[in-house]
From TrEMBL, chain A:
Keywords attached to this entry: Oxidoreductase
Pfam families: GDC-P (PF02347)
The name this protein goes by in its record: Glycine dehydrogenase subunit 1
Top-level taxonomic group: Archaea
Annotated ranges, domain Glycine cleavage system P-protein N-terminal: 9-395
Stored Gene3D superfamilies: Aspartate Aminotransferase, domain 1 (3.90.1150.10), Type I PLP-dependent aspartate aminotransferase-like (Major domain) (3.40.640.10)
Automatic annotation (TrEMBL), chain B:
Gene source species: Halorubrum saccharovorum DSM 1137
One annotated GO molecular function: glycine binding
Key words, A-Z: Oxidoreductase, Pyridoxal phosphate
GO cellular component: cytosol; glycine cleavage complex
Pfam family, one: Aminotran_5
Lineage, opening ranks: Archaea, Methanobacteriati, Methanobacteriota, Stenosarchaea group, Halobacteria
Domain Glycine dehydrogenase C-terminal: 351-438
Identification of the protein by name: glycine dehydrogenase (aminomethyl-transferring)
GO biological process: glycine decarboxylation via glycine cleavage system
């Protein structure tokens, strides 16, 4: 091991280091650095090294400063119970400590897992191409917009998004659009769904992409997706639909309503609540095969004539195409995709459909109960919901949310008199407490 | 010890492990018993429904057909594959940290504190005044940094259209500049492998928004003229961007902020040993000098003025967001734990051992290394041999080969970065694999690899007729 103060993760003994220096022909490690004095750093970071035990205790202490709350929070980041088998298999070091599969012959395992992940998304979306991940739903949406810009020959530069959209997601989209000289505009919603007539009035030659979500950020299921797909097609605009793999297990298949691209948060499977970390779902029509951003795994044949897997169509990517690449993405969320695939396998189609149906039933049941609380009305929108719904409160919403937090429950504030509540299998057992807290604070 | 994946092949079968869909496909009638009306639902869903024991065997078997840093040397140049300390996984798995990003700051003091501490650590290590943790990968960090530079120029009324990038730079640099709406000006390398200062002077001007530079560069050379380079770019009104891919070489000995860089990203899986997970997740925090801090993504985290805790805040002229939430949280926690484990001396020692290892390995191999003195990585040339073939043969000798055929300034390049985690005997094994493969017959190279789960894969026909799902295979 290194002497005291060295990295614990370098195996060199002092005598090995000396022998290696001698083989190179220098006296010490400093002689190997070619950094001019004028820019050399001889100060200190002031970072005291700690032992494993100390760091674990320190971080436990820090994290214990998070309040112990029952979270009824969603709006794009969803917690579902993740079975233990997901952790144990995904944490196998052969997966966790591997790199991108640049040598496919020695990386068949991860490639096959990613191929299976892509296949699962093909089934859920009905679209023939799914990449093996983007960072999250927001960046996947940004990539969809730049894809639209590349594949649509119209002179248009407008990306239409729903008025009900997570602010942060729109902010990310704006940054992707800025570089492509695209403009983001919102279209109105009516009672929680896309105002299809207003959207039809707006859609025209200047539009390159129409984006809608199912369910919406308020949990509403869209009822006229086919009409949205038709009007996007009439305007020669890409129709991009946002969703997640749990919802997609039961909702209308995106391909059947004319979606050209599906984006969303695939981390609804496989990831625990992780402070916003995600898994960007990206699937599309094979018309755009050579314009897809991100990595694709394909089946191939090896020299023995056996089936094998490899990263493919890499000429789209930055390490080959440089400034003409379809995206700058390199590192993605492959390990999270592996987790999502394992989670989906543990559920199977039955389990996925049951989970999604529970998200519908629990939301409806909880909305009914909150609706009975005097001073609260839920759901605000007369729609079917997945997981979450808006609540109208007579008193200022922020004050109610703060009072609920004091009672140990976290909900979203989305307007002056609007709250939003999200219920999944993780917090369904706490709904009695939430309803009681509503009664207490209103 | 040679890890022979070919041993796992099933005798007489043309697949090593069936696809899940080949083991089971179950179709469910979605509408039966659905709480939703039929017109809002799909009719059916068809997916595999394996049992848990089958799942455990399937993925265990797949894992056995996958090389990893825990399997053996993984010296991919510029990728910095180093050992991922196990305890960081346990730190990140703390259930108290598994909170929703939308809870109030008051109720998220623990996570905010860790974010604040990590911002401070990274600022010190890079010599930067302000740090955002939001970018979810290195390339996302580049995009963030260039967007910040663009916002800075626009704020000062400067309409600049170009980003200058050395020819030897990572592909992401070029793609990033294009994504941010800039024209790319490619700078040819000088004869010594470094930036050609005269060519740089000719390339920069009123249109230059930034120069993106990796230092040490992609063949491991320190840009000795960095002060002059910085002056040239700054005198033209441009900004200097530091690609943090090679920061591992500099830890404790040089800081981008002290070299005149204005904005940088950190690659945490490269420098701070977070696991790469077969392609990601990474994290690409961005550091900037004071003048650029007001443009960073929102929110950042600061101490409350009364010292009672931490709070998120929006920088005054923020570019907005680059990730839907706060980035790859679990990865950031592991970053913090790694930095805390090493401290000042450990980080400096990591750089020293990384540079020692690269130089020692280069001494032991029979291939020429045209450019030096190099630091943490070197670009050997396979000369008359095909670097990709040599690499395939190396797989048979129980190591992962280096990055091949890049950067292009070295013919038949084998860009090699052993990192600090290999000891002398492991480096000797790696050198032997290099030398055996390099000296092997053309026939042996053509036939390689033989000890992997798959034999040589035909990439060209895979791309000509892409099969991207099991559904596509079913159609055959």
């Amino acid at each position: 091991m290194s002497g005291s103060g060295g990295t614990p993760y370098a195996p060199h003994t002092d005598s090995e280091t000396a022998a290696m220096l001698s083989a190179i022909g220098v006296d010490d490690e400093e002689a190997l650095f070619d950094i001019p004095d004028a820019v050399a750093f001889d100060g200190e970071f002031g970072i005291e090294p700690r032992s494993e035990r100390e760091i674990r205790a320190e971080c436990s202490r820090i994290f214990a400063r998070n309040d112990d709350l029952a979270e009824f929070l969603g709006r794009g980041h969803y917690g579902h119970y993740v079975p233990s088998v997901v952790d144990h298999l995904a944490d196998r070091a052969e997966f966790l400590t591997s790199y991108t599969q640049y040598q496919p012959e020695v990386s068949q395992g991860f490639l096959q897992a990613l191929f299976e992940y892509q296949s699962m998304l093909v089934e859920l979306t009905g679209l023939p191409v799914a990449n093996c991940s983007m960072y999250d739903a927001a960046t996947a949406l940004g990539e969809a917009a730049t894809l639209a810009d590349r594949v649509r020959s119209t002179s248009g530069d407008v990306v239409l998004v729903p008025d009900h959209l997570r602010e942060g997601k729109r902010a990310v989209l704006e940054n992707y659009c800025a570089g492509a000289d695209l403009t983001v505009e919102s279209y109105p919603m009516t009672d929680g769904n896309v105002d299809v007539d207003a959207l039809a009035d707006r859609a025209g030659d200047d539009v390159v992409m129409v984006y809608a979500e199912n369910p919406t950020v308020r949990g509403c299921i869209e009822e006229r997706l086919g009409a949205i797909g038709d009007l996007a097609a009439d305007a020669d605009a890409l129709f991009t639909l946002g969703s997640d793999p749990v919802s997609l297990s039961v909702l209308e298949e995106p391909a059947s309503v004319g979606a050209d691209v599906v984006v969303g948060e695939a981390g609804a499977l496989g990831l625990p609540t992780a402070y916003g970390m995600g898994l960007g779902l990206f699937a599309c029509s094979d018309d755009f095969l050579r314009q897809v951003p991100g990595r694709l795994v394909g089946a191939a044949e090896d020299a023995a004539g056996d089936r094998a897997f490899t990263l493919t169509l890499q000429t789209r990517e930055q390490h080959i195409r440089k400034e003409r690449a379809t995206s700058n993405i390199c590192t993605n969320q492959a390990w999270v995709a592996l987790r999502a695939a394992i989670h989906a396998a543990t559920l199977g189609p039955d389990g996925l459909v049951d989970l999604a149906n529970d998200c519908v039933r629990e939301a409806a049941a909880l909305a009914d109960r909150i609706d009975e609380v005097k001073g609260a009305a839920a759901p605000v929108h007369d729609r079917h919901h997945v997981r979450e719904f808006a609540v109208r409160v007579d008193q200022p919403a922020a004050a109610i949310a703060a009072d609920l937090e004091a009672e140990g429950f976290a909900v979203h504030t989305i307007g002056e008199h609007l709250l939003q509540v999200c219920v999944t299998d993780l917090n369904a057992g706490r709904t009695d407490g939430l309803v009681a807290a509503f009664e207490e604070v209103i | 010890m040679i890890h022979d994946q070919a041993d796992y092949a099933r005798e007489g079968e043309d697949v090593h492990e069936p696809l899940l869909s080949e083991k089971d496909e179950t179709t469910v009638d979605v509408r039966e018993g659905s709480p939703l009306p039929d017109d809002l639902t799909r009719e059916e869903l068809t997916l595999p429904a394996p049992s848990e024991p089958e799942i455990a065997r399937h993925y265990t078997r797949l894992s056995q057909m996958n090389w990893a840093i825990d399997s053996g040397p993984y010296p991919l140049g510029s990728c910095t594959m180093k050992y991922n300390p196990k305890f960081t996984e346990d730190v990140a798995a703390d259930p108290n940290a598994a909170i929703h990003p939308d809870r109030s700051a008051r109720a998220a003091q623990g996570n905010l504190e860790l974010q604040y501490r990590l911002q401070e650590y990274l600022g010190e290590i890079g010599g930067m005044d302000a740090v955002t943790l939001q970018p979810p990968a290195g390339a996302a960090g580049e995009f963030t940094g260039i967007a910040v530079a663009k916002a800075y120029h626009e704020h000062h009324g400067n309409d600049r259209s170009e980003v200058v990038i050395p020819a030897s730079a990572h592909g992401t640099n070029f793609a990033t500049a294009a994504m941010a709406g800039y024209d790319v000006v490619e700078l040819p390398s000088g004869d010594d492998g470094r930036v050609d200062v005269e060519a740089l002077e000719a390339a920069v001007g009123d249109d230059t928004a930034a120069l993106m530079l990796t230092n040490p560069n992609t063949v491991g050379l320190f840009e000795r003229d960095i002060t002059e380079i910085a002056d040239i770019v700054h005198d033209a009104g441009g900004l200097l961007y530091y690609d943090g891919a090679n920061l591992n070489a500099l830890l404790g000995r040089g800081r981008p902020g002290d070299m005149g860089f204005d904005v940088m990203h950190y690659n945490v899986h490269k420098t701070f040993a977070t696991p790469h997970g077969g392609g990601g997740p990474g994290a690409g925090p961005v550091g900037v000098v004071d003048e650029l801090a007001e443009f960073l993504p929102s929110p950042r985290v600061r101490e409350r003025e009364d010292g009672s805790g931490y709070e998120p805040f929006d920088p005054d002229e923020t570019i907005g967001k680059v990730h839907g939430f706060g980035g790859n949280w679990l990865v950031l926690v592991k970053t913090y734990a790694y930095i805390a484990r090493l401290g000042d001396e450990g980080l400096a020692d990591a750089a020293a051992k990384a540079v020692l290892n690269a130089n020692y390995l280069a001494e032991q191999i029979d291939l020429d290394v045209p450019y030096g003195p190099f630091h943490h990585e070197f670009a050997a040339t396979a000369g008359e041999r095909d670097a990709a073939d040599v690499a395939k043969r190396m797989l048979d000798f129980g190591v992962h080969p280096p990055t091949t055929k890049w950067p292009e300034m070295v013919p038949e390049a084998m860009l090699t970065e052993p990192t600090e985690i290999e000891g002398r005997s492991s480096l000797d094994d790696l050198a032997e694999a290099f030398n055996l493969a390099y000296a092997d017959s053309d026939e042996a190279l053509d036939a390689a690899p033989n000890r992997t789960a798959a034999a040589r894969i035909d990439q060209v026909s895979a791309a000509r007729d892409p099969k991207l799902s099991w559904q596509a295979l079913d159609g055959e």
